[in-house]
Amino acid sequence: MKRNSFDFRCFLWLMSSLLIATTSGVILLPTVAPAEELVVKPIAEKKVSELPPGPLFWRIENFPSLAQAQAAAGSTGLAAEVSGRDWLFTLAAKGGSSAGGTEVAEIGPVPPIRAPTYLLRINHASGHPGAATAVHSHPGSEAFFVLAGRLGQKTPSGIAYAEPRQAMNGHAAGMPMVVFSAGTTDLDQLVMFVVDATKPFSSPTEMPGSD
Fold first, then answer.
1. What residues make up the domain containing 174?
2. pLDDT digits (tens, 9 = 90+) for 6-16
């Protein structure tokens, strides 16, 4: 009897979770919550009229203080405090260094773009496992540096991953992509952009072959 009573309660619960429109023959299932989105926050940006001669790389350095990072920033450098550390991000030729800084990573070569004005931006992105962006593109490239968790990026070329303390270089302008938290712990990452400042920073798009 106990088992039959339990089965009957389960049946009632299942039926109560369905809305059956008998006149139209349509069955509406319970609403499923959309996937969680990554939390993305701009932390530094500047516009410049020209870039250094290429090929260019993103140089990431740590400094003892934010004031020192700001003092060392050149025309294409952006300083910020993120996750308890003081950073300087510089778009420049390979192999350079900033006085007083400790190199963390060098990412590139950055896919080249041509624009009347350039926007350099640093974003801080985070999210629980499975959190993702919508399919989108940028009028330039974005590069990643993972602080914690595991980064995933899907493009028409496939899926790539980066682990903590690893970098991922950007694609050419207009590349459709989805960025997501691919690990079992929260993703914490830095994202570096160089884009055409005269165009929308981010645009919704479709992933080829997703139909």
1. 39-204
2. 343 443 333 44
